[in-house]
Specification:
This is NlpC/P60 domain-containing protein. The protein is an alpha+beta fold. The protein contains eight helices and eight strands; from the N terminus they run H-H-E-E-H-H-H-E-H-E-E-E-E-H-E-H. It starts with a helix and ends in a 6-residue tail after the last helix. The relative contact order is 0.13.
Length: 239
């Protein structure tokens, strides 16, 4: 009788473990589906706001257009550095990764940059640019470009702290990512090959990451007047 009871207890424990496992799988699938729906909704909401800006812009004089560009730039900065970064966080890295969907599939560092910007509504050649050295597309998006060789991470952080708040793309020896400067905070958001299972993440500029280890850095401040104007009007970038 005692042996039968123990066998029943073991089977009950195994059944409970199986139920917990299945419940966990279901939760994960539901969470992923929720994330996908949220991302599609996010893209739609940003496109709707772009169309509002576009209508206002077409009806405005030069003074009002400057104001609309400034509002649009602030809107884009907030959306990219919060909603879009949060959606992509945790998407696994792979050298050949090209996923269009956050946390589903894998993404390479260059594709992370061009896919995110494309999803925000910038009409850029996503695939062509992602396959180029990052300096290629940084210089096509902005004229505000600086190059640094053999500078320490501390030097680079001090450089950013002296710059206006905003979003930058940093091209490195063999990597690329976003640098976001806000007040006294400077962070690096990228699809990390240092932690491929974690992939897309935001971390301090100074640390064990490709930005800190890189010997060459090309830094471009994006979301300037011309870049925002092209976004408002839905204009395309050439390859």
């Amino acid at each position: 009788m005692g042996i039968k009871l123990k066998i029943m207890q073991i089977k009950l424990i195994q059944l409970c473990a199986l139920c917990l496992f299945l419940h966990s799988c279901l939760q994960n699938k539901t969470q992923v589906k929720g994330n996908l729906l949220a991302y599609e909704d996010l893209k739609v909401s940003v496109e709707n706001q772009r169309l509002i800006f576009q209508k206002e812009y077409s009806e405005a004089d030069e003074v009002d257009r400057n104001s609309i560009e400034e509002k649009a730039a602030s809107y884009l900065l907030e959306k990219i550095t919060t909603d879009f970064f949060n959606q992509w966080e945790g998407t696994e890295w792979d050298f050949n990764g090209t996923t269009r969907t956050p946390r589903k599939g894998k993404i390479a560092c260059g594709y992370f940059i061009t896919t995110l910007l494309s999803d925000v509504g910038f009409k850029i050649p996503r695939t062509k640019w992602a396959q180029q050295a990052s300096e290629y597309y940084i210089t096509r998006m902005t004229a505000d470009v600086k190059r640094f060789s053999n500078q320490t991470p501390e030097y680079m952080k001090d450089y950013f702290l002296k710059q206006p708040d905003g979003l930058y793309i940093a091209g490195l020896d063999s990597h690329v990512g976003f640098v976001y400067k806000s007040g006294n905070e400077v962070t690096f958001t990228h699809a990390s090959y240092y932690d491929p299972k974690i992939g897309v993440q935001t971390e301090e500029l100074i640390g064990d990451n490709p930005f800190a280890k890189s010997a060459y850095r090309v830094v471009g401040r994006i979301l300037d007047k011309e870049m925002v104007r092209k976004w408002i009007l839905g204009e395309s970038w050439s390859e």
